[in-house]
Amino acid sequence: MLNPSKSDCITILSAASELADDSMLPLDPSRLGLSRNGMLTAAAFLTERACFRRYQEGDGHYAVGALSLQGRLRLEQLCNG
User: Fold this and answer.
1) pTM passes above 0.70
2) Which domain of life is it from (predicted)?
3) Residue 37 burial (CB count, 10 A)
4) Is residue 11 part of a domain?
């Protein structure tokens, strides 16, 4: 079972919350200020819980789309709870 840090999840969800509906956010650990392992753990955790409208993986690179309703609710929960 994945156990990502709360701050890593908030970082990814916050960045994705600013995307337009058709945009994709490349998950780059240095750009997001996260460790590679922390980013991958949080991204896997969040995608398994359908927090993004779209998700892409290829050649070891990952990208996520805008937040789904579940993603917005999870961001709210993490920030306030």
Assistant:
1) yes
2) Bacteria
3) 11
4) yes
Token duo for residue 27: 């998950």
What CATH number should be reported for the domain holding residue 51?
1.10.10.10
Tell me if 1 is assigned to some domain.
no
pLDDT per residue as tens digits for the range 16-66: 999 998 899 999 999 999 999 999 999 999 999 999 999 999 888 899 999
Domain of 73? 6-80
**Three-state DSSP string of the chain:** CCCCCHHHHHHHHHHHHCCCCCCCEECCHHHHCCCHHHHHHHHHHHHHCCCECCEEEECCEEEECCECHHHHHHHHHHHHC
Q: Which is more confident, 21 or 11?
A: 11
